[in-house]
Specification:
The protein is an alpha/beta fold. It has helices spanning 8-18, 20-31, 40-54, 70-85, 98-112, 115-120, 173-187, 211-216, 264-274, 276-282, 361-382, 399-409, 423-428, 431-435, 448-458, 466-483; strands at 59-63, 90-95, 133-135, 141-146, 158-162, 198-203, 223-226, 235-240, 246-251, 301-303, 309-317, 329-337, 348-357, 389-395, 415-417, 439-442. A hairpin with a 5-residue loop joins strand 3 (133-135) and strand 4 (141-146). The protein is elongated, with a radius of gyration of 28 Å.
Amino acid sequence: MVSGRITPQRQLQAILRNNFKSFVIKVFQTVSNDTYLDNWHIDVVCNEIEQMISGENTRLIVNLPPRNMKSIICSVALPAYLLGKNPHEQIVCVSYSDDLSSQLANQFKMVIESQWYKDLFPAVILKTRGLDMLRTSVGGYRFATSICGPLTGFGGNWIIIDDPLKAGDGFSDTVREKVNDWYTNTLYSRLNNKNTGRILVVMQRLHEMDLTGYLLSRPLGFKQIRIPIIAEENEDWSFTDKFNREHHINRQKNDLLHPVRENFDAVTSMRNMMGEFAFAGQYQQRPVPLEGGIVKRGWIRYYQNLPRIWTIAISWDTAAKAGSKNAYSACSVLGICDGDKPGKYNRKIVLLEVHRMKLEFPQLMEKIIEMSNEIQNKYQKMFNMKFMRVETVIEDASSGTQIIQFLHSKGIRIEGIKPENDKETRLIGITHLLENGTVLLPNQQDGETVDFFDELFKFPNSTFKDMVDSFSQGVRYMDDKYVSGCKGYF
């Protein structure tokens, strides 16, 4: 044998040391019993990570549907590759639960302890073998923890966050805010160097303000890769890799992500089984379906010119507190008009105005009285009426109960509505009135009306829900009293 001859084994090792995607494939074959099926999205993700490794980018978000190798690439292969390149590297890996965190750590350990990896990176020698802390003999490590888990004393040059929320927690405001606050107040501070440290977030979307939405809503410099399972438009994924090779992927609208693995029948079955909300987030990486959430855009009937209104209700959803993190107090101003045919079943409920505000308790009570007077005077004058009936409707719960009691003590007539079920169920309870054209919404959208429509079509994934809740409460009240006269929608 000629000394120094480049054998096929050495060629393979050279490729694995210098091409992250090739390394990922080898890792997949080590930890998975499935057959590896190549696809363009793996090239895209691996190239972006190569750019992070080289320092071209330090903040990256990858939004990818489940079962498309995101965890193997980012939480298993990447830490192993980084430590192979530099056994001193320090990496913190975070997942939503201890079980998932341990599972990924165990797969990482399988790779590190495999013979091919030892031959590839002989300098990587494990000193500790516990799944939470896998430390090399020279001080590098992969530290595994769960969201809100212990981090005291540990920092990293890399922070890898893999699925910070489980699917069932997507609609929990409490859990989402806990995750976002923990990232800001705890996890971010564990970067050894805020300027050069890398943060990689890989997750499926679950809500408008999940960790991805939270990070992208702030000027934090994150680059996002969003890959839906069904292309919503033509996509051009073109890049030049570190070997100066050009890659061009042209994905057409409605193309599947990986049809060899999941064809249209499989994707359609998942969509039907999960429902539109879950599918839009987890598989399309868009927390709200394009056509809307509970309320579809195609249902809405608009009015261009305001019809003649003969009675009005101001429906209030009052917040418990006025702090910046608390909900708004919101009110929807709704009127009744006659349709083009006689009879109460042809009446229409018209949204006239919508407002939201953050006021402390005394100011909020003053605002409720002020709004009642202003609305009455405004529409009496508009329709040249001597008297316009204006009713004030308030949710009889939490701060609303106190407001009702106080205003009653002042001789002011307030209609208290006892809430039944949650906000989502209450909106669902009036969707038939939106679909059948009983409710008319303004065609001209500006100011707070824009926020209302955004909240309406994104609900229940909208950041705030107060305007929609005041709207659904008011519509139900007006329908029960002036239109159908029926009870029991909720």
